[in-house]
Design brief:
By secondary structure, the chain is of the alpha+beta class. Helices cover 33% and strands 23% of the residues. The chain is globular.
Length: 499
């Protein structure tokens, strides 16, 4: 999962790109990059948060009226600096590209691109694979100036070869800006416009909140299987639906990743989480638990926790205070780092916890280690009882569309009962949201959506090309890229049964 931004303006674009990336920092904290164009490309990218990668001296060199930005959360690769986006290709004209998502046939594509297209992919990033496929298809058309039909053919070529979930933004030197989204629309992308005098500037981003912050009016989502081309000379916007496959955006965006103030696929993330909380509250009510206070595990669960407290007629309390300068533990690269950071990230308040029965609300339980540490902290702070509720269902399957859930073995709920998970995390009760409730909570915001990618929760992969062999291959490849210590080992099923 990454954050991407494209600005197509008339003056200095770098500041807007920077501000957009800061807004999307929650989507990736490994690295960041910006590329701009003013007759030649200028690029700055490095490991770290946006604020640490870009200083005044760097921003002064990022000249140009158009550019792209990327904040990285790695789901593939070895962590080499060569994998940081944006990527630049020399032909045709010169192309810079950023992407969000994951190609599950990237290894095969790298080999094919080398053997058939005679191009070397010099990193393990899917972004470089997409860049080479796209530019190769453009170059084959041998056009003196790119027209919309050339863009459509190039994007169609990518669709035929690339498998997975992805959103892409590219700027072609002196030709225009291109954006396209995978045929099922798994990964999100929106675009908008802003009037500056008599001119209209355009912005493309992963989430609508980036447009809001910079004063851009939301035009629309980039549809599944759709390409957009903003032509340089006329600044006309051309749109074409190239693939007609079923729309199935990622449900995990609404559960966890996206900011609550974003509107994605015409669904409010905030409202979706509110509805998930209300539905979960009805399930909790039937258990007749003795609860003194409802408490969120900050930050993404706060919206649902409000709804649950309201529905149950209970006190809502902030008892876990988050250090906002510590990153999101789920998207840290190794379990050892995750475990260490939990205590630094959250500090319990005894005044709100001591002597009380606390209902903790979280968005999900992935590996279980974070949940276990939180329950231990709250209990050690003096809670009489600690109940734990996840407003999403048990995560039982890997995700190969851009979320770093690579193996079943690292998922605590895989082949384990709710009772097994409850024992492992040490809660007095454990309540999960239902699959149907999660689905309904999202599509209520946009009834035109008839399907969602919920592969983490139901094991069904919407692209229809994911086999057991592919899952095993992906798991082996991803595990080989991680540095795993004894402490990092996922919880085995036999360990669960001993608890």
């Amino acid at each position: 999962m990454c954050g991407i931004v494209g600005i197509y303006g008339y003056d200095y674009a770098a500041q807007d790109i920077y501000d957009g990336l800061v807004t999307l920092q929650h989507r990736g904290q490994d690295a960041a990059g910006i590329a701009t164009y003013d007759g030649k490309f200028h690029i700055r990218k490095d490991f770290g948060l946006v604020r640490d990668v870009f200083h005044t001296r760097h921003m002064q060199r990022l000249l140009g009226y158009a550019g792209l930005g990327h904040t990285r959360y790695a789901t593939i690769g070895t962590g080499d600096a060569g994998e940081i986006q944006p990527f630049i290709g020399p032909a045709p004209y010169g192309v810079v590209l950023v992407h969000n998502g994951n190609l599950h046939n990237s290894h095969e594509l790298k080999q094919e691109i080398f053997e058939k297209d005679h191009r070397l992919i010099n990193s393990d990033s899917d972004g470089e694979v997409l860049l080479n496929m796209f530019t190769k298809a453009l170059t084959k058309q041998n056009a003196d100036g790119l027209k919309p039909q050339h863009i459509w053919k190039a994007v169609e070529s990518v669709y035929k070869r690339a498998k997975g979930g992805y959103s892409v933004i590219a700027y072609i030197a002196k030709q225009g800006m291109v954006a396209f989204r995978d045929p099922h629309g798994i990964r999100p992308m929106v675009f908008g416009k802003r009037k500056v005098g008599l001119n209209t500037e355009y912005m493309i981003a992963s989430e609508s909140v980036a447009l809001d912050i910079l004063g851009f009016e939301l035009i629309d989502d980039v549809a599944n299987g759709e390409a957009i081309f903003i032509e340089e000379k006329t600044r006309k916007v051309f749109r074409k639906k190239i693939s007609q496959k079923k729309f199935a955006p990622c449900v995990f965006e609404y559960v966890y990743f996206a900011r609550p103030d974003s509107l994605m696929n015409k669904i409010s993330v905030y409202k979706a989480r509110l509805r998930m909380g209300k539905k979960l509250a009805k399930k909790i009510k039937k258990l007749n638990l003795d609860i003194d206070a409802v408490m969120p595990v900050p930050d993404s669960s706060r919206t649902a926790a409000f709804a649950i407290a309201d529905e149950l007629g209970l006190h809502y309390r902030e008892g876990l205070i988050k250090n906002r300068y510590i990153g999101r533990t789920f998207i840290m690269p190794g379990q050892k780092i995750r475990k260490k950071s939990i205590r630094y990230k959250l500090n319990p308040m005894p005044l709100e916890i001591e002597g009380k029965n606390i209902l903790l609300i979280d968005d999900s339980i992935v590996r279980g280690n974070t949940s276990r540490k939180i329950v231990e902290m709250v209990r050690a702070t003096g809670a009489k009882k600690v109940y734990f509720a996840s407003y999403s269902p048990p995560i039982i399957s890997p995700n190969i569309y851009g979320i770093d859930i690579a193996t079943r073995e690292e998922l605590i709920a895989h082949n384990a009962s709710v009772e097994d998970v409850r024992k492992f995390i040490g809660a007095d009760a454990l309540i999960y949201g239902d699959l149907k409730d999660m689905f309904d909570s999202c599509v209520e915001g946009n009834p035109k959506i008839k399907d969602l990618d919920m592969s983490c929760f139901d094991g069904r992969y919407v692209t229809g090309d994911v086999t057991e062999e592919l899952l095993e291959k992906q798991a082996t490849s991803r595990c080989a890229e991680r540095e795993v210590s004894d402490e990092d080992e996922p919880v085995a099923e036999d360990q669960l049964n001993l608890l």
